[in-house]
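Sanity check

After download, print the first record. It should look like this:
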Amino acid sequence: MDKKKILIQLDSDPQPSVFDRVVAIDAGTDEVFSYGGVRPERVRDLVHGAIFTRGPKDLKSTAIFIGGSDVTAGEKLLEEARRHMLPQFGLRVSVLLDANGANTTAAAAVRVASRHLELKGVPVLVLGGTGPVGQRVARLLAREGADVRVGSRQRARAEKVCESIRAKIADAHVEPVASGTSAELQADLKGRTLVIAAGAASALLLPRADRASCTTLKSAIDLNAVPPLGIEGVEVTDKAKERDGVICYGAIGVGDTKMKIHKAAIAKLFESNDQIMDAEEVYALATSIA
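Expected structure tokens:
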């Protein structure tokens, strides 16, 4: 008899995300055990509770989901979870990191862009490129061979992101750019075919006049759902909507793909007990289902 599918939700926030719990159930999970306020020092006992309760052949029916609004905290929880598995004895469970939805959102943004553009060699500007979603968008695009400009109001912060990407991807084409003024934005946009805005809520990153200065632009994707939106003139519900010759997506327009990816990632956790799903693994799944 098959074991029940149990997802153990580790959330760095005091109150575990209801959104993530609902998605887990809709993805076919039988039970969700939710823990809030999880800190790295608490992870060992939670992981051991997961790996010591079932035999190795049944551990594919137990998995861990790492969420919360703080992506950096989520990354630390993932590191701890990996550290306390015992793969040499077959005692491990699969883990998905999607703190603040960063991995599934980034994967969805890159996936929808790929529907309209060949990503290899495509000139891209990622605005808000130093945030958790922006960093992952830039990294995924770089892995696909895109020519990526990483935009930030502070160029030094963008340079750190580029250095991190180059450390992971030897042949990455990434360039840090400052994007705080109109003149800087127009220079950043020169020759770009795709722009993705991944900034914080209510942060206008690309005014309409600056966007209009880019005659080569073919697609614009805005991941901010809270007014004022990140790209002026792109509506939150836009889904492959053509505006002034540019294919546009808003946050809700990307959301359908994000939800498909999120549910598919949860379901995939229960296929085996040896998966660690970060941005690259989530995007690989996205290319097969979305």
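If your output differs, re-run the checksum step. Summary of this record's structure: DSSP finds ten helices and twelve strands in the chain.
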